[in-house]
């Protein structure tokens, strides 16, 4: 399952980052690393971007980038 598939209000744990190069590095710099708990707060009206709660703060992430993050419930 990927982060893009988690429903609103759903919590999950990051298992693996599958992005490449700069995208993967940017996601890691935002605090999304293996073992991190992530909560999907809301999704924009057209489905992109996602608003997430990570490590005590909120951030927005494009759905394409969220699809590169494997998670488990």
UniProtKB/TrEMBL annotation:
Key words, A-Z: Iron
One Pfam family from the record: FeoA
Provenance organism: Kribbibacterium absianum
Annotated Ferrous iron transporter FeoA-like domain residues: 1-73
InterPro entries listed in its UniProt record: Fe-transptr_FeoA-like (IPR007167), FeoA (IPR052713), FeoA_core_dom (IPR038157), Transcriptional_repressor_C (IPR008988)
Name this polypeptide is given: Ferrous iron transport protein A
